[in-house]
Amino acid sequence: MTSPPAPSETSSKSLPQWLEPIALLAPAGIWLGLLLVIPTLLIFQLSLVPGIRPGQVVNPSGLENYLQIFQAIEIKPATATEPAVTSFVYLKVIWRSLSFAIGTTFMCLLLGFPVAYFIAITAPKNWRNLLLVGFVLPLWTSSLLRSYAWITILRPTGVLNSILTAVGLPALNLLNRPPAVYIGMTYSLLPYMVLILYASLEKLDRRLLEAAADLGATPIQAFWKVTVPQVLPGIAAGSLLVFITSIGDFVDPELLGGASSMTLARLIYNQFLGASQNWGFGSALSMIVVLAVSISIALLLKYGDRSSANL
């Protein structure tokens, strides 16, 4: 009398081996396909329809929406002191969005690295978790409330100017200007940079720092030649996260920047929900954002893996 097969043998025979990874990835793949891939393809299809509005038939016909980005020209007439200026309107908006994203990423890295280094290396172990919770505490509130708080601080009669005038310093005109946008976006995204850098610095091999000191390296040399190469993947990941989030930020430029700080996110919003209702052009602008994010992720996958492999 033959004995029944073992449960492991039965399960391996009932499901082919090549189907096992597909079965594991199927739920996430279906989720991404329905909520990411298909909507992106629909937006790309709309971007090929010039001047489409709600209720109209989708009939892709060309790249007119993309060419409109380069064809829209703003001419500033000459004055008594300044010559006439010709600028590309939408390219100017794209460049402003990239400037906000790059500047915010640089400021978050500049401010976040010392904080993450202090929490991961210098602070006592018993205080590290408490310091992390205290630093990410602003994320527990709404981004809208944080922006309104900065309006209260930066407005002409706000907290900042009240303090400056009280100590005899001139008041600053920051609200509804690009500096206010940089301040608000840096404040909102700084905790993300700190958390990622902390995770990398916590794994820092301090024996290499001791070896560098024994070999006569100064603290600055040890920092650039030992610390930075070890945490370079964390720097790349944190910078990418901040850049992607800031390039699509809508709240801070809208509330803190005023009319002079038009960004891609606000321009896309105007095309879909504003008075113009030009869904085709808004979709073309959206695809530019998707392209910028995809390039950033590709650079991280290429150079981030290379830097981590060389450690």
Keywords:
311 residues, MetI-like fold, mainly alpha, 71% helix, two-stranded antiparallel ribbon, 13 helices, disordered C terminus, single chain
Characterize the structure shown:
The chain is mainly alpha-helical and 311 residues long. The chain has one domain (89-309): MetI-like (MetI-like fold, Orthogonal Bundle), CATH 1.10.3720.10. It contains 13 helices and two strands. Strands 1-2 form a two-stranded antiparallel sheet. Helix 3 (64-71) crosses helix 13 (279-309), helix 8 (178-201) crosses helix 10 and helix 9 (206-214) packs antiparallel against helix 10. The chain is globular, with a radius of gyration of 26 Å. The model is unreliable at 307-311 (pLDDT under 50).
Give a brief outline of the structure.
The protein is mainly α. Helix content is 71%, strand content 3%.
Oligomer: single chain
Q: What topology, given as strand order, has the largest sheet?
A: 1-2
What's the helix count? 13
Helix content: over 70%
How is the biggest beta sheet arranged? Answer: 2 strands, antiparallel
